[in-house]
Amino acid sequence: MPHMYMLFCRIVHAPFFNKTVIGCFVRIGIGKNKEGRSVYRVKFNYIPNCAAQILDVVETAKVYQLENTRTNKGLKLKHGEEERVYRLEFVSNSEFTNQEFNKWYDAMKSNNLAILTIDQVEKKEVDIQKAVNYNYTDKDIELMVQEKMRFQKAPLNYALEKGNLIKLKRRNDIACKFAVKKWGK
């Protein structure tokens, strides 16, 4: 399964983006410390190194670069009872540590909040696999081009962009076939 940041970069303009990511968990990177090590934090009560669940996808005031595209999407995150919006550009590409999971678990328990069930986790995993293996239709491509155009700095060559998206679709199809062979899903 791809790391969340890479998944976001691939599907940020897809029509199913919100449905796919809501309910997932992310780790937020906020920079480097004095020793040059990455610092990960979701500033809920200033607790460092915490996991947070995505509650919603919202539009932020800032348009920003996310790999090779631009967006204004933000994630409404929750850790325990605390909520905050972060831009996708701050999502970490690394996995949670046991300590980070335990902090999330403790925050949920101490606030008497429901813990995810195995069924909920498995359903979300299926949603992610559907997104990874999705075969884009012409209508999907048109919608994605329109979404990308909202954030362009300069006028867009529509035909060129559509051609690029079709090439990306073919690469995605090849990558999915490779993934099925490698992981058997």
Q: What's the SSE blueprint?
A:
Elements: H1 4-11, H2 17-21, E1 25-26, E2 29-32, E3 38-40, E4 52-66, E5 69-79, E6 82-87, H3 98-110, H4 118-132, H5 138-149, H6 158-183
Antiparallel strand pairs: 1-4, 2-3, 4-5, 5-6
Domain Plus3: 1-133
Pfam families: Plus-3 (PF03126)
Keywords: Nucleus, Transcription, Transcription regulation
Task: Explain this structure.
It comes from Onchocerca flexuosa. Keywords: Nucleus, Transcription, Transcription regulation. InterPro entries: Plus-3_dom (IPR004343), Plus3-like_sf (IPR036128). This is Plus-3 domain protein. This protein has 185 residues and is of the alpha+beta class. The protein is built from six helices and six strands; from the N terminus they run H-H-E-E-E-E-E-E-H-H-H-H. A four-stranded antiparallel β-sheet has the order 1-4-5-6. A two-stranded antiparallel ribbon has the order 2-3. The protein is globular.
> Main sheet, how many strands, which sense, barrel?
4 strands, antiparallel
Give, in order, the helices and strands: HHEEEEEEHHHH
Which stretches are poorly predicted, pLDDT < 50 over at least 5 residues?
A: 42-47
- What is the average per-residue confidence, as pLDDT, rounded to a whole number? 82
Given the C-alpha coordinates, what overall shape results?
A: globular
Mind telling me the CATH superfamily name of the largest domain? Plus-3 domain
**Intertermini distance:** 10 Å
- Kindly report the CATH topology of the largest domain: Cathepsin B, Chain A
* Alpha-beta content class: alpha+beta
| CATH architecture label name of the largest domain | Alpha-Beta Complex
Q: Tell me what portion of residues adopts beta-strand conformation.
A: 15-25%
Alpha carbon gyration radius: 18 Å
Count up the domains: 2
Number of β-strand runs? 6
> Which CATH class of the largest domain applies here?
Alpha Beta
Subcellular location: Nucleus
Main location: nucleus
Keywords: Nucleus, Transcription, Transcription regulation
GO molecular function: DNA binding; RNA polymerase II C-terminal domain phosphoserine binding
